[in-house]
Design goal:
262 residues, alpha/beta, four-stranded parallel β-sheet, elongated
Length: 262
């Protein structure tokens, strides 16, 4: 009997940047949370978003209320949770992850134990698994390139993106290029490499957890997007608007990261 009671005070908090696109939320974030819930049935799963802008927008436009990291920690404490595992769905160890860690530090004395899993791209093994998960979703013809759009950041963790491309190539996927919206490499760098490779067809896909605003507009939109720029340069472009959270192989990496801190 004691065992059953003990198990009920364990929680997993899944922390995401968030999205205001409900379709993307259901397809990516919710599926990750369900996947984690199935993998660890003895834990209660909670959700938090780190983007206050998105939380405000969801509240204002959709009437939806979700927790910040601090609010989720308060909720878990008041629900009597004692052991908490926090698993971010962040892609890199960047600004959002730092912010999350700062917020968690304030709650160390409120729980018996808090453990924190790593973002998606942390170990060399993570990069390889993420690459295989992505390539399982894509069928490229010969002479076709896959261009991935990452978010990018001015945080030093932006180094993850060039590392990702390098790892694709070292695993034999030389037709894959990685660019970012807000960091290095950018679309110009990608286009220079496409020209050298002499390809004519490009599949575009986001390397982001959710296929939200950036994927729908900056990547695949009908104006001022990567798609229109590549088309203007003469490439035949096929956008694949699919977030990483929609891929089983990616969800499994988050599950592994939780197992590692258990």
């Amino acid at each position: 009997m004691m065992e059953g009671k003990k198990n009920r005070n364990r929680a997993i908090l899944v922390v995401s940047f968030g999205t205001s696109h409900i379709d993307a939320l259901k397809k990516s974030i919710e599926r990750i949370e369900l996947h984690i819930g199935k993998a660890f049935p003895e834990y209660r799963v909670y959700r938090a978003f780190t983007s206050e802008m998105i939380l405000r927008k969801l509240s204002r436009t959709k009437g939806l209320q979700f927790h910040t990291v601090k609010e989720a920690m308060e909720q878990m404490a008041s629900d009597g949770m004692e052991q908490v595992i926090v698993q971010p769905t962040h892609i890199i160890n960047g600004i959002e992850n730092d912010k999350m860690m700062d917020d968690l530090m304030e709650y160390t004395d409120r729980f018996k134990k808090i453990r924190v899993g790593k973002p998606l791209l942390t170990s060399v093994d993570d990069y390889k698994k993420a690459i295989h998960a992505v390539m399982a979703e894509v069928k490229l013809e010969s002479g076709e390139a896959l261009v991935l759009m990452g978010h990018g950041t001015d945080h030093h963790a932006n180094a993850a993106y060039p590392t990702l491309e390098y790892t694709f190539h070292s695993l034999g996927y030389s037709q894959v290029l990685v660019g970012t919206v807000e960091g290095f490499p950018d679309l110009r760098n990608v286009m220079a490499k496409l020209e050298i490779a002499g390809v004519e067809k490009v599949t575009l896909m986001p390397f982001m957890l959710v296929a939200g605003d950036h994927a729908k507009n900056d990547m695949a939109g009908e104006e001022d997007s990567w798609k229109t720029e590549l088309e203007a340069a003469g490439y035949e472009v096929k956008p694949l608007v699919k977030g990483l959270g929609e891929m089983k192989g990616i969800r499994s990496i988050f599950v592994e990261h939780i197992e590692m801190v258990m």
